[in-house]
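Note on ligand handling. Small-molecule inputs were canonicalized before submission; formal charges were left as drawn, and no protonation-state enumeration was performed. Where a ligand contained multiple stereocentres, the stereochemistry in the source SMILES was retained. For flavin mononucleotide, this procedure yielded the string shown in the input block below.
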Amino acid sequence: MEVLKEISDWVTISNFKPDSIPQESLDRIVSAAQRAPSAKNRQPWRLVAVRKRDVLEKIYSAAYMEEHVGKAPVIIAVCTTNVDYKMPNGQLAYPIDIGISLAFMMVQARAEGLGAHTITTYDEEQVRQILTVPYQMRVVALLLLGYAEETPLQRERRPLDQLLAYDHW
Ligand SMILES: Cc1cc2nc3c(=O)[nH]c(=O)nc-3n(C[C@H](O)[C@H](O)[C@H](O)COP(=O)(O)O)c2cc1C
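Structure output:
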């Protein structure tokens, strides 16, 4: 079954080359987030792209010095406003909104020939302070970006018949 190559080839990259990312690629990745749909079109995402070595080092420290975080030449802190906004089904909107914006950025990163890695293993308070993120917001995830230094094997997924039923559960 054919899906977009950027999706069918998806694999998280943990080993990055030190090379910086072209500004045009970063711009297109951010434009992909901008285009993402969100509940009531509230667009709750706010992004902080970290490129300076000294700030990257601080984020690395706030992310418990995990090796892959230390290697990424660009880290985008994906933050949210509207932390309390609920959808008509009573559920919080921001995890979905931010998740979709992340997914759009990850697919665009692949199209740019870049590797990407979403991480949530960090001290949010420290990241907030390093990047001066206002208190009414949350830092939902960090997106590591860079040229891949590795070609990892794809991780397995459940077969389609385990994730889809037609017409009833
Ligand atoms: C919401 C989310 C949170 C994640 N948090 C982390 C993390 O904290 N540390 C990490 O190494 N990987 C993290 N990952 C990456 C996943 O472990 C990875 O996507 C998963 O193992 C599947 O591998 P694949 O992306 O190569 O297919 C996260 C991914 C997502 C989508």
